[in-house]
Design brief:
Length: about 70
């Protein structure tokens, strides 16, 4: 998964501006990678993360999709 696909998943999983994703992962390293991509999207101003946690089987990301003009 890359950042663009993660952003697309956030947009598809949203209710209003809020989104909630549970992404299954194969390893702890995959979970850390997805969490890092979510943090990068937040730094770019595309999403606002309210909660992000991962374990061995999934990554849970909850937040707000931002509509900032570029």
């Amino acid at each position: 998964m890359d950042k663009n696909r993660l952003l697309k998943e956030c947009n598809q999983a949203r209710s209003g501006n809020f989104f909630s994703l549970e992404i299954p992962v194969n390893s702890n390293a995959d979970g850390e990678n997805i969490e890092q991509m979510a943090r990068e999207l937040e730094k770019e101003g595309k999403i606002k993360i309210r909660e992000c946690m991962h374990n061995d089987t999934l990554v849970y990301v909850h937040g707000i999709v931002k509509y900032a003009s570029n």
